[in-house]
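protein under study:
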Amino acid sequence: MARKQRFREEEEAAVDMTPMLDIVFIMLIFFIVTTSFVKEAGIEVNKPKAAQATKQKNANIFIAIRSDGAIWIDKQQVDVERVSAKIESLLAEQPTDVVILQADKEAKHGTVVKVMDQIKATGDNLRISIAGDQ
């Protein structure tokens, strides 16, 4: 009898970890799905100073224009004609309504306008925000 009683006590002392692991995995999936990833242009630009600069929230697309006219999106150099196609592919991954344009203060105005035209050609609902140093 004593042996049967000891076996019953050991059986009751076991804790089932399955429900806790289920909850941990569900929380992990929730955090992965709800996380938004920020994409950057991939290069540092010497932006002009801005007195009235404001921070833009929920912007996922950054376009950088260097002083030599090189255009960078998502750490890749892109031709002016390919800007619209690149933005469309980024919008398919993560929809947004704001595109941040970071132009070097020595960049030519014509290049900046061409990039802005390409952004507008992607969709009328996109807003262009020009980045400046504060």
Notes: The chain has a mean pLDDT of 78. The chain has two domains: 2-34, 61-130.
